[in-house]
Amino acid sequence: MPDNLKYTQEHEWLKIEDGNVAVLGITPYAQDALGDLVFVELPEVGRKLTKGEHFAVVESVKTAAEVYTPVAGEVIAVNDNLSGDPELIKKSFEEGWIAKIKLENPSDLEGLMDRAAYDKFTSSLD
Amino acid sequence: MTATFKTALFDSHIAAGAKIGPFAGYDMPLYYKEGVLKEHEWVRSSAGLFDVSHMGQIYLEGAGVVPFLEKITPSNFAKAGTGVAKYTVMTNESGGIVDDLIITRVNDEKFLSVINAGCKEKDIAWIIDHLPADVKLVRLDDRALIALQGPKAEQVLREVLKIDASGLGYMRMMFIDGLIISRLGYTGEDGFEISVPEDRASDLWVKLLASQLVKPVGLAARDSLRLEMGYPLYGHDINDETTPLEADLGWVMGKGNEGFIGAGNVLGKTLKRKRVGVKLTDKGIAREGAEIRNDKNKVIGALTSGGHSPTLKSSIGMGYVDAAYANPGTKIFVTVRGNNIGAEIAALPFIPARTKSSKKAAA
Description:
The complex is a heterodimer of chains A (about 130) and B (about 375).
Chain A: E1 6-7, E2 12-17, E3 21-26, H1 28-34, E4 37-41, E5 48-49, E6 54-60, E7 64-68, E8 73-78, H2 81-84, H3 88-91, E9 99-103, H4 115-125
Antiparallel strand pairs in A: 1-2, 2-3, 3-9, 4-6, 5-8, 6-7, 8-9
Chain B: H1 10-15, E1 19-23, E2 26-31, H2 36-45, E3 47-51, E4 56-61, H3 65-72, E5 85-91, E6 97-107, E7 110-115, H4 120-130, E8 136-139, E9 143-149, H5 153-161, E10 173-176, E11 179-182, E12 191-197, H6 198-209, E13 214-216, H7 219-229, E14 273-280, E15 291-293, E16 299-309, E17 314-322, E18 331-336, E19 339-346, H8 356-362
Parallel strand pairs in B: 3-13
Antiparallel strand pairs in B: 1-2, 3-9, 4-7, 4-8, 5-6, 6-7, 9-12, 10-11, 11-12, 14-17, 14-19, 15-16, 15-18, 16-17, 18-19
Helix pairs in contact in B: 2-7
């Protein structure tokens, strides 16, 4: 896992681009818990998200996991490649992103964990 | 539920890296290192090994066993030959299903039955409640059950155990070297269920797994495999309130058997609802509990099972719908998280069975 990302307790990662865009995906911890991925329900581009809203669904063989956003903002891009190949989510941080969100309040990022804090958090879960 | 049980193979599952989860009071392997999809595909292409020791094994024996079986199930057993296995159901007074089970003739007055793990104690209590004086029930709690399923299963038995099963037909059973080998399963593939004394189970498991053709398969893939075949899962697709006819299991009912428990609430009744296959025609995954609607947005039923089909690479399920909508091809909608997803009623099974007799028929 890269060190320059932000992480949530719901196991999303966020990469900040150009200071005001969050690229969002789910962490390897969540990927492992879900197992084989078979479908991703993506939001529509242009949708306005409030902080804490569920905006996508990752379906594995076992279960459906709702993906939540820790930041408010507008969906400006979605990773359409996931429709054909949901397992891309696990391949890499570059290819496995779910959506790009234009931040409404950059201060939303403040409460998020860095890599070290997230590692500590996940190790406390096992 | 108080304590969870473990099967005789529990340590082998841990050693193989299984993800363990609770099922019917047992700690069972859900999947192993390669994951559900690979396990599913392995069973369809080679041979998968399943621990199904949590299921119940019992003998029913005595002079009155045939009339008794024809009372607790709607099937016929009088003419069943030795070694012939039948899939059937036990019914209650209202015609609902107590459990679905396999009953195999061992000899004139003795039958082997394999019952669902989650129904084991309920079934045994039910049977004992109805047991006549000339039939007795014997629990085979000291036997494990291993399923070897897939197109290479017969080859594995020959190569690993030196057992030639080529002459054993579909739904036929044989005793050999303390094993009870039945050519049947819950995957739609050719394969065997092997009943083995518990103290020999892990040796047998390890031996079979050593074959390059064999990989262990957990309950998650067992579920997707049976779903593709349209096999009902007790407690989900069938239960105490579904009759065999509603469940589309009329084929288990024997001609002339009108004396089974609950017959008056099954025979000659107009069906209000029926178990059907459902195939999503739009993208999404629909799971158990999802509402089924018609094109006027009226709820006409619900899914009782559902998920991703690794073979078809689409979402499939089973459920009950008003009988008027039960014909294959009928356009319907399935509601997932408030959205109606396009779907249609599908004939079961979703993919053709490749069990031994169906292979022969195709040849």
